[in-house]
Write a structure and sequence with these properties.
Elements (H helix, E strand, L loop, with lengths): L13 H6 L4 H18 L3 E4 L3 E4 L2 E4 L5 E4 L2 E5 L4 E4 L7 H5 L6 E2 L3 E4 L7 H18 L1 E2 L1
Antiparallel strand pairs: 1-2, 2-5, 3-4, 3-9, 5-6, 6-8, 7-8
Length: about 140
């Protein structure tokens, strides 16, 4: 049986999703991030799955044969933390995170508690760098 991606682009409303975020502060941060990501990428926001706001899209294919589409960058205002999605494998990410502010990291995600904890200029640079890296290394769709 072929692997089915859970996170696909949908026609759901980004604004309706943000309006359903329980925490007023997280909702305010989501609108701020929406503006920052839109400005830095030039792409319209789209919902990916039920909870990721993505910008642009690219096609990836791993050596294992697994392939699919994903947003170039994105974010999700989750209950515990806000997840920021950047390119995996970008060698510039670690250096940029040194000046980013309070955060934790996962393989593809950077987690923040609130936008006030980070340097938004560094965030915009990270967004642009991630998009640039993906455009150089994958097929943008």
């Amino acid at each position: 049986m072929a692997y089915q991606l859970k996170t696909k682009e949908t026609d759901s409303s980004v604004i309706e999703f943000i309006e359903k975020v329980d925490s007023l502060k997280k909702r305010e941060d989501a609108y701020l991030l929406l503006d920052l990501f839109t400005e830095a990428t030039g792409y319209k926001p789209k919902m990916w799955g039920s909870s990721i706001i993505g910008f642009g899209a690219y096609h990836y294919k791993y050596e294992s044969g697994h392939e699919g589409d994903a947003p170039l960058v994105g974010f999700s205002p989750r209950k515990a933390k806000i997840s920021l999605y950047f390119a995996t494998g970008d060698p510039n990410r670690e250096a940029m995170l040194k000046n980013f502010g309070k955060h934790t990291t996962g393989k593809a995600c950077v987690y923040i508690n609130k936008v006030a904890d980070i340097d938004t200029d560094v965030l915009k640079d990270m967004i642009r760098q991630s998009v640039s890296y993906l455009k150089e290394n994958h097929t943008v769709i």
